[in-house]
Amino acid sequence: MSQSLSPSRSGRTALILQLAVQDLWHDRQVSLCIAAALVAVIAPLLLLFGLKHGVVSQLQRELLDDPRNLEIRMLTSGSYDENWLDEVRALPGVSFAIGQTRSLNTQADLLRDRQHFLNGIELIPSAAGDPLLSNQTDYPQGTGIVLSEPAARRLEVSVGDRLTLAASRRLEGRQERGRLQVEVIGVIAAARFPRPAAFVELPLLIELERFRDGHASSLLGIEHGTQRDDYPVRFARARIFASEGDAVAGIVEALEAQRIETASRLAEIDNVRAINRVLGLIFGVIAITALVGCLASMAGAFMANIDRKRREYAVLRLLGFQRPAVAAFVAAQVGLLTLLGFIIGLGLFALGSAVFNRALATSHMAAGVVSHITPAHALIALALTLGVALLVAIIGVVRAFGIQPAESLREA
Amino acid sequence: MLTLSELRVVRGEGTTGRHEVYLPHLELASGDMLAIVGPSGCGKSTLLEALGLLLQPSALGRYVLGPSATDLAALLQVENESALARIRSRELGFLLQNGGLLPFLNVRDNISLPRRLLGLPASSERVHHACAILGLEPLLDKRPGALSIGERQRTAFVRAMAHEPRLLLADEPTAALDPQAGEVLFGLILSLVQELDMAALVVSHDRTLVNQFGLPRLIATLTSGGSRFEPEP
After folding, report:
1. A336, A364, B56, B152: least buried by Cβ within 10 Å?
2. Main subcellular localization, coarse class (chain A) (predicted)?
């Protein structure tokens, strides 16, 4: 037989696809019912997932936005050297660690003028990489200091203003007051640090401690006192930050192994993880139930459809369409209806999500929560939907495979 | 054009249900139209299915269609389904009792489907001619659901001959029609088969119609284990 009588494979595929579409369109009421079964599952699942994702990511954002949630505070004081600090910095998950002097020496007075001063303000050692100052352009260096917003407010100063930092000591029966001109190089929000405080570089804090311990300090303008160059640097405690919420537990454990009592927001972090886990489980169970139901309903609808159209399939076979062509016909119909269902489902999700987000925006309880999915989530949902479609297509194809062309000749 | 010998098809099982259809010999030339007649249940449709390569015969001596030397008996023997489907779509045309039109295609697309399946142009002179003679031209854009039974059967006939098969197999094409419409369709089939140089086998139990057109007949006689088909002497 001449080869020209055989259509190309692509031509035949296009013909099958066209027939599949024409059949779907001819039977559009039934087609819509099948697609609707899919929409009825996809849209609510996407909405539920969008909310879950919105709630959990808001909780996580709250955790991560506030570096204090990553802080591991040491409750007990000790005497630690630089080596110990290096060991702490080497612990897995530690992003920042800096030594602190004894708590009595972490205070000083800040004065602007007679009306504006703060006595006994908290001094916090800081350096490049300090998570609390992560959104600052400059870190404390030399006589440059960063104030917390409550401190700046009470002193009525802003970036660029100059202040006097003062510390008093009693040495050999004499009251002495060391003074240093400092410049405000930054102010951090109260949400970051709610108490009045000044972030200073560690050498300045150590200088203040030595001054209080009776050393002379040219920096503070007091030349009177003992001179001991071999004075070893010892820290009473350290400020330690984890790089992420999940690392906090490990650091706490490592410190407690050294009998160091700590305070952290581990409980809150665990809470968010627990909420995520529980919501994930709830969503998973609902999703599986719905998908199984959807699979059953779609497979049933398709099988009934194939049985109803048995004679048509037999005629297609009689005309010379072979089994793979009939399989492609069924698979194309399942695929098209699935895509239709998915697109409508996605559209309904967008609508429902907009309604949710409007309601959430006016609620104080749920401030910041938005129903939202990422493109990756949409792709995963599409993959799951196509997975369901594949199963339905397999069931349908198995059913359609048994149809013999001779059935078209026999009476119904 | 068509040469066949020693065809046996077994239908049913067991001693009571078993029925063997036996056709010792059949020869058809171009333009021939042969009526297959016999009592109900004698296996007329079974014979048609076997000739249409839809049933696996229990024995078959020789089956050749057209000038090609391809022995269809061998293909049936090894159940080469794809080769049989190719031959079926190219060499055979089926006209079913109920039309067998696809409800989702209009008349034009139903008629062109066998041609498109073979990669032929959607229409041809012969198709136009047949549509004109059968009065289908005003109906081309209608779906089968909107047609009368007679219109459906005429459409089904054009679809069966659209790809210019060698052999037309018709299973009681006029059974659902009133006598007058049946007579018209029968006459049209006969004249087009002769005009287009096809061969046709038509199952019918309408003796008056067969007699009226003076068709040669393949008659079934019931035997002990089944039935035997032989051309009218």
Report:
1. A364
2. membrane
pLDDT of residue A21: 95
Assigned token pair, A223? 């030349």
> In order of start, what are the domains of chain B with their CATH numbers?
2-231 (3.40.50.300)
Q: At B84, which helix (H) or strand (E)?
A: helix B81-91
Kindly provide the b/e burial profile for residues A69-88, where b requires at least 16 CB atoms within 10 angstroms of the residue's own CB.
bbbbebeeeeebeeebbeeb
* CA A36 to mean position of chain CA atoms: 34
The SS3 call for residue B71 is: coil
Query: Which amino acid is located at A111 in the chain?
Result: L
Say if residue A165's pLDDT is above 70.
yes
- Asked if the C-beta of A315 comes within 8 angstroms of chain B's C-beta atoms, the answer is yes
Selected residues 97-126 of chain B with any CB under 8 Å from a CB in chain A: 97-98, 100-105, 109, 113-114, 116-120
For residues A383 and A342, is the Cβ–Cβ distance under 8 A? Answer: no
First to last CA, chain B: 20
Report yes or no: A402 at the B interface, CB cutoff 8 Å.
no
The C-alpha atoms of residue B1 and residue B27 are separated, in whole angstroms, by 8
d(CA A9, CA A23): 21
Residues from chain A that touch B45, judged by Cβ atoms under 8 A, are 409-410
CA distance B49 to B31: 21
Q: Say yes or no: A412 contacts chain B, CB-CB below 8 A.
A: yes
pLDDT value of residue B97: 85
Q: Which residues are paired to A183 by β-bridges?
A: A144, A162
Flag if B45 and A410 touch (Cβ within 8 Å): yes
Q: Measured between beta carbons, which residues in chain B are less than 8 angstroms from residue A7? A: 116-119
Whether A26 has its CB under 8 Å from any CB of chain B: the answer is yes
Question: Which of A26, A315, A321 would you mutate first to test chain B, the one with the most B CBs within 10 A?
Answer: A315
Radius of gyration of chain A measured on its C-alpha atoms = 36
| Inter-CA distances, A173 with A108, A170, A217, Å | 20, 6, 18
Using pLDDT thresholds of 50, 70 and 90, give the confidence band for residue B41: confident
Q: Would the pLDDT of A231 be above 80?
A: no
CA distance to A412, B135, B147, per residue, from B155 (Å): 20, 10, 10
